Amino acid sequence: MELGPYLILASLEGAITAAVLALTAVGLSLVFGVMRVVNIAHGEFFMLGAVIAWWITGMIGGPPAVGFGVALIVAPLMVGAIAVLADMTILKRLDYDPERTIVATIGLLYIIQQLTLMSYGPDAHPVTAPFNTRLAIPWVAHGEGGWTLIWPWGLGTTSYKLAVIGAAVVVLLGVWLMMARTKIGLLMRATQQDRDMALAFGIPVERIYALVFGMGAALAALAAVLIVPIQQAHYLMGGDPLLLSFIVVIIGGLGSLPGTVVAAVLIGLSDGIISVFFSPTLAKILATLLVALVLIFRPQGLFGARGR
Amino acid sequence: MNDTSKIITLHGGFLLVLFALQFLLPAYHHGNLARIMVLASYAIGYNIMFGYTGLLSLGHALFFAAGMYGMGLSIQHLGFAPAPALLAGIIAGIVISAALGLMALRTGGVSFMIVTLMFAQAGYLSILYFGKWTRGDEGFVIGQAQRILWGIDLSQPGNRYFAALILFSACLMAALWLVRHPFGKTLIAIRENEDRVAMLGYNIFAHKLGAMVISATISATAGAFYGLLFGYAGASFATVQYSIFPLLWVLLGGAGTILGPFIGTLFMFYLIDLSSGITSAYMLIAGVALVLLTLFAPQGLVGVLRAKLWRWLP
Known about the structure:
The structure holds two protein chains of two kinds.
Chain A: H1 3-35, H2 42-60, H3 64-91, H4 98-120, E1 134-136, E2 139-143, E3 146-150, E4 156-158, H5 159-181, H6 183-193, H7 195-200, H8 205-227, H9 239-252, H10 257-277, H11 280-297
Antiparallel strand pairs in A: 1-4, 2-3
Helix pairs in contact in A: 1-5, 1-8, 1-9, 1-10, 2-3, 2-4, 2-8, 2-9, 3-8, 5-6, 6-8, 9-10, 9-11
Chain B: H1 3-24, H2 27-52, H3 61-78, H4 82-104, H5 109-129, H6 131-134, E1 140-141, E2 148-149, E3 152-153, H7 157-180, H8 182-192, H9 194-199, H10 204-230, E4 232-233, H11 240-253, H12 260-278, H13 283-296, H14 300-308
Helix pairs in contact in B: 1-7, 2-7, 2-10, 2-11, 2-12, 3-4, 3-10, 4-10, 7-8, 7-10, 8-10, 11-12, 11-13, 11-14
C-alpha cells in the first residue's frame, strides 16, 4: 500500500482535531484576552458540553438528528449560563486578580468534574451522529491502463466528520464577525485594550466580563457537542482539550484570535500526522516543552507580532 | 518571654506532642500521621516558594516525583542501599529545580505558573514514556528487604513513624531557621515588594533561584522519604493533582507560616479520608475548599491565628 492515502487520512483526522481545538482554544483565548483570566476549568466546560449533549439526546429520543440539533443549541447555552454564574459568584468577588482566579478555577475544575462523576457516573457514553454516510477516499494509481482513480479498501471517512470541519469554520467566522463588526464586539475590544478607560466611557465592564466568560465556555461546549458523536462522553475528557488549548493559545500568542486559529490548525494537523508515525506521548512531551520554552523566550507567541 | 523564646517553646512543644502521639494513637491513625508528616514536609517545601517568596508554582509534583524516582530507580536498577538512594533522590531534585529555575524564573506571575505546570506535565509524560524503567502508571514496589536503613527496618510502623518525625522536624526547623535568617527575610521582602528590594540593590533573580532550589530540595526529600517509607513509586505522584495538593494544604493552613503546612495537610487529609468513605468523588472536597479559601480566607487557619492572636508567629 502506498503512503499517500494514509497521509490523506491522517491529515483529515488532524483537520477534525484542529477544528475542535480551534473552537475550544478560541474560547480560552477570548477569556484570557478580554479578562486577563487564565481559566483552568475550561476543559471541564468542554466535558460538560459533551455530557449535556448525551443527556439531551437521550431525553428527546426520536431520530438522532432531532436530539442532536437541540443539543447543539441547548448544551452551549446551558454551559454558558453555568459559566456566567461562576463568574458572578466567584471571579467577580476575587476582583479578577490573575493569581487568585487561577486557584479558584482549579477549584472549579474539581467541583464540576466530581459533580459530574457523582451524577453521570464513571462510564463513557456514546451519542449517535445525526448523519453518518461512509465516504471512501479516492486515490490516483498507475495501473495497466494508465492513471486511474481507485478507492483503497478500508480507508474512508464519514460525512459527519467533514460536517464538523465545516461547522467549526462557520462558527469561527461568526466569532470573528462579532468581534470585528458588531457593537458588542467593539465593547469587548475596548474592554480588552483598557479596562479602566472602558469603564470611564460607561461600558458595563462587569457585564461584558460575564458575557465573555459565558461565551468562552459556550464555545468549548459547542466543540464538545460536535466531537461527541466521534468520541464518547466521559467525565475525565476535559484534560486533553485543556492542555492542547493551552498549547495553542500560548503558541498563537496570548489573547490573539487569528494567532490562536493558525496555531490550532498547525497543532491539530501535526498532532494527527505525528501520532500516526511516532508515539503520541512523545508528541505531547515535545508540545508541552515547546509551550514552556515559547513562554520563556518568546512570550508574545510564535505568531503574535504585537508586543504587550 | 521575648519572641524568640516564645517561638522556640511553641515549635519545640509541638514536635514533642508529635513525638508523644506515637504511643497514644491507635494503629490506623498512627499510620496516617506518619503519612501526614511526610506530606507536610512536602508542603513546608512548597510554602518556602509560595508562602514566603510569593512565587506560585503549579509544578511542584515534578520535584516530589524527582525525589521519589531518584530514590526508587537507583534502588531498583542500580542496586543502591537506602541511604545513597535517598541522596540520589535529593540530588535529582536539586539538579532539576536549578535547571528549571534558570529558565522559568525569567518569567513572572501567570506565565511562571503556566511554565511550571507545563514542565511538570512534561516530567509526568516522560515517566510514562520511559515506562520500560519506571513501569509508568502502574509504578513499582520497593520491597521490604530494600528498605532497611542502617539496620532499621523502615517498613515497621514504629520505625516508620520515627523516620517521618525526624524528617518533619528537620524540615520544620530548617524552614524556621531560614525565615529568621537575612536570606529568608529578603525573600519575604521580595514577596511584599519586588521593585523596592531590587532598588535596594539585592539580586532578585539569585534570591528567587535560591528559594526555588531550597523549596525543591525539601520537596524532593519528602518525595524520596515517601517512596522509601511506604514502599511504592508511581506516576500518579507526578500528576497535576500532586502539584495542586501542596497549594491546597498551604492555603488551608496559612501561606507564609511555619505550622500552617502541617495544619493544612492534617485537615485536608482527614477531610478527604472521611469523604472517600462516602463517595468516590472525594476530590469535590478539594475543589470546594480551594474556592472557599480563595474567596473568604486567603490567610488560612494559622494566618488568621497570627492576625488575631499571636502577632509574633513566624
